[in-house]
Amino acid sequence: MDFSVDEEGSRLIAELERRFAGIAARAADADAAGAVPEENWRDLAESGYLRVFHPTEIGGLGVDGVVQAMAMESLARACPSTFWSATMSSLVCSKLIHTYGDLASHRGLLDALLSGRRLACFPVVELTSGSDAGTYTTTVRRDGDGYVISGQKARITNATNADLGVVFSRLDGHEAGWCYAFVDLRQPGVRTYAMPHMGLRAMSWGGLVFDQARVDVADVVPIRLEKFAEGMAWGWLFISICAIAIAESALASSVEHARTQVAFGRPLAHMEGVQAALAQLRAEIDAARLLAYRCSWHRTEGDLVQDLVGMLKPYATELAVQATQMAVQIHGAWGLTPPHLVERLYRDAPMNVIGGFASNRLRELVAEMLGLQLTYRDFDWLSPTGLGLDTGGHPSSSVTLASLALAER
Asked: What pairing do the DSSP bridges indicate for beta strands 164-171 and 139-143?
């Protein structure tokens, strides 16, 4: 495993950073307006960023996983909202189409996404369902010579401005039980709506309602539920890298402020507590980045990385929240005053913790890979202690913690 970058990779990253300088300059205005500017999309298409994640045979740049991770962090440093919108489409959705679709049938979709002519979203969660796929109700069923899809997805990146949805749905009447449906979102039978959100404000976020929307036979790809996490791993990776970028930006702003802000007769940087906090954060960000490079390298090689990215996402996303909290402490009131960079980062960071999969669920996946098989069964905690008896000495109906947990699920 080699994390070094060759001359060609270094040139690509330098060019991307040059291009992304304009995106960074527009980030505060994009956050205030609640939309990614058209200039950003033009910069993304012309820079080649949308092609970074794919092999040359489908029009990609064919770069390795470490360069891909560096490219992601560069854009996320410039504007996390733009990063989320663009990378959800060009990495996650395009990878799913390339991996599970048929190149002969779906080359046109890939060409449109990689060129920036079209934008995609990945509708997974629903209004009343989060990480538990077993509770999803959106369904694709056969109808004449094609399929129709019905249901509602919510809290979806790019929901209101995407042209294409790579929709994770139940597949009625098929042994696989589930599918990815490549749905044209500009057709009758599809309605979208915006949802307010605290951070990543320039990123479109909302819901989609499918009412017997048409889907071609070639655009319904059966998949077994146990394979779902393989596709999600790309999302967990890009979310983690966004968090690393936010933490890095918070650290850089804090170091600069500590050097220039004078309090009690000396710069903040001369205070031991500030030095210790910044030094600790420097070490933790670098540790998260190395794990991200490892994940990206293995995933690009075609390896499964659920164990690695299951560790990375909780660590990196929660680290970013801690980093922005520390940045607010160092900046004082400026850190909570719009349109200061730290104020925006402070709002953006928690979105990464929640996005994709909740941290606790990912920790459960890592525990399972350690051999700690998780089981849920009824267990009566009350009767042996006598707490199952009411004040009159008569047995009451006992409620177990396990049954409460099951009810919540």
From this structure: parallel
Assess if residue 159 is contained within a domain.
yes
Residues 18, 19, 20, 24, CA torsion sign: positive
Residues 88 and 162 placed together within one structural domain of the fold: no
The reply to whether 67 and 108 lie within a common domain is yes
Q: Dihedrals φ, ψ of 62, to 5°?
A: 65, 30
CA–CA gap between residue 175 and residue 223 (Å, rounded): 9
The answer to whether the CB of 186 falls within 8 A of the CB of 156 is no
Same domain, 94 and 164: no
Write down the pLDDT at residue 388: 63
What pTM does this model have? 0.90
User: Which of the pair, 225 or 320, is modelled with greater confidence?
Assistant: 320
- Whether 357 and 231 map to the same domain: the answer is yes
The reply to whether 206 and 252 lie within a common domain is no
pLDDT above 60 (res 201): yes
**Does 246 share its domain with 301?**
yes
* 217 plus 234 within the same structural domain: no
In Å, how far are 3, 43, 59 from 48, measured between CA atoms?
22, 9, 10
Q: What is the dihedral of CA 348, 351, 352, 354, to 10 degrees?
A: 160
Q: What is the pLDDT of residues 136-179, one digit of tens each?
A: 999 999 999 999 999 999 999 999 999 999 999 999 999 999 99
Q: Which domain holds residue 104?
A: 7-118
pLDDT in tens, 386-403: 666 555 544 444 444 444
Q: Are residues 96 and 145 in the same domain?
A: no
The one-letter amino acid code at 262 reads: V
pLDDT tens digits for range 65-121:
999 999 999 999 999 999 999 999 999 999 999 999 999 999 999 999 999 999 999
Question: How far apart, in whole angstroms, are the C-alpha atoms of residue 8 and residue 322?
Answer: 35
Nearest to 197 by CA among 147, 136, 155: 155
3-class DSSP assignment, residue 207 = strand
